[in-house]
Write a structure and sequence with these properties.
Elements (H helix, E strand, L loop, with lengths): L1 H30 L9 E4 L8 E4 L4 E5 L4 E9 L2 E4 L3 E2 L16 E5 L2 E5 L5 E8 L6
Antiparallel strand pairs: 1-2, 1-9, 2-3, 3-4, 4-5, 4-6, 5-7, 7-8, 8-9
Length: 136
């Protein structure tokens, strides 16, 4: 009788271990499936005049503001780096507003911070993550 009680317990332990491994593998595959990490995220102070912001939607669109002008464009992500297609922007003059966001060609998100750089790799500025707000 001791053998029959030990065998099912060992089989149960192996089954639990196998299930845990399968679950970990599924999470790993999901994380590596090519889903953009910035998809459906918002950064900066949305709808605040004088403050830059950017929202990335799952369809590859980027919507935001440099604090004065509306900024729109497309984005892709590869190996943790966001690359922007040409960003279109309105051209209003706003005294005292730094419009660095319109010069961004790449961005890297790390935790709750995203850092934008120009085509030469020079850091332009960064924004803090905020609650996702779908563009209007």
């Amino acid at each position: 009788m001791m053998i029959s009680r030990t065998a099912p317990r060992s089989l149960k332990t192996r089954s639990i271990a196998a299930a845990a491994l399968l679950g970990a593998a599924a999470l790993l595959l999901t994380a590596c499936s090519g889903s953009p990490s910035v998809s459906d995220t918002s950064w900066g102070k949305l709808d605040t005049r004088g403050e830059p912001s950017m929202t990335f939607t799952a369809d590859g669109a980027a919507h935001g503001s440099d604090g004065c002008n509306i900024v729109n464009g497309k984005w892709t992500e590869e190996k943790g780096t966001v690359t922007f297609g040409p960003l279109a922007s309105t051209m209003m003059f706003c005294e005292g507003v730094d419009t660095w966001l319109t010069g961004a060609t790449t961005a890297v998100a790390e935790g709750d911070k995203i850092t934008f750089s120009d085509e030469d790799g020079k850091e332009l500025g960064s924004l803090q993550k905020t609650e996702f707000t779908a563009p209007k």
